[in-house]
Amino acid sequence: MVNSPLLRSSGLVTLTSDFGVQDTYVGVMKGAISQVNLRLTLIDLTHHIPPQNILAARFALMTAVPYFPAGTVHLAVVDPGVGSQRRAIAIAAGTADQEPWAFLVGPDNGILSGVLQIYPALAAVELDNPAFWRCSEPSATFHGRDIFAPVAAHLASGIPLQDLGTAIAPDCLVRANLPEPRWDGNLVVGTVQAIDHFGNLVTNILGRSVAGKGWRCQVGDRRIASGYTYSDVALGELVAIVGSHGWVEIAVNGGNAQEQLHLDWGGTVELFVEG
């Protein structure tokens, strides 16, 4: 499957990290990519993932990958275990005969597992071939520069996945520690899987599970009516909607739901379906 002629890179690399833009880390990773191939196209998804927040990075990748051409290489570096025994990996995810599919490059810490919920892993390798690193003795604290960036560049330049390291079973890849929604009659208990720039709380409850039904959310003793869009309630009021990502989210019209409800990643949200 990995040798299929359909599994070709588009020459496009996206970058996601928690590095911010104040320091030179992002620019240096781009420099390492350019040392391999100056002609690659680089797109920054975001470098404002909260520090060490694997769940936030997981969500960013999961919701971005479908909007890129088949064969895009997605490089993601949120790596609190850098330099430890955690594996560095690359994955071909999707189906070889259907778009979109993607290459994923990053640490094996759950950051890539959201994408794999949508597109199954065709193949995976541990990045243990130093021929494709920036140097044979990488920094213990900057694998983004010394391993992940050059590997992503080689993939985007047409190097076969299997050349980059030792094959590993896709079913042994680390999954993010995020519980699945739990249904009990008309009640579903979900989890906050993302918090965006506006403070909207995106749950892991799929919007299609409430399509055409009456429903509301509850957080602690706060009842939150459902709506279609943010402006269905007055300024400053909470509303539960199905957001653009396709999941149920809680927002405040003109305000910040995280600040009002004091919820964080992994927080519990209850959803009640009428009837």
Q: How would you sum up this structure, described in words?
A:
Helix content is 17%, strand content 32%. By secondary structure, the protein is of the alpha+beta class. The protein has 2 domains: 12-172, 3-Layer(aba) Sandwich (Rossmann fold), CATH 3.40.50.10790; 182-273, Bacterial fluorinating enzyme like (Elongation Factor Tu (Ef-tu), domain 3, Beta Barrel), CATH 2.40.30. The strands form 2 sheets. Strands 8, 9, 10, 11, 12, 13, 14 and 15 form an 8-stranded antiparallel beta sheet that branches. The protein has a 7-stranded mixed beta sheet with strand order 2-1-3-5-4-6-7, sandwiched between helices. It is elongated and about 60 Å long. This is SAM-dependent chlorinase/fluorinase. Residues 13-165 form the S-adenosyl-l-methionine hydroxide adenosyltransferase N-terminal domain.
Secondary-structure topology with pairs:
Blueprint: E1 12-17, H1 25-36, E2 41-46, H2 54-64, E3 72-77, E4 88-95, E5 98-107, H3 113-118, E6 121-126, H4 143-156, E7 166-168, E8 182-184, E9 187-195, E10 201-206, E11 215-219, E12 222-225, E13 238-242, E14 247-252, H5 257-261, E15 268-273
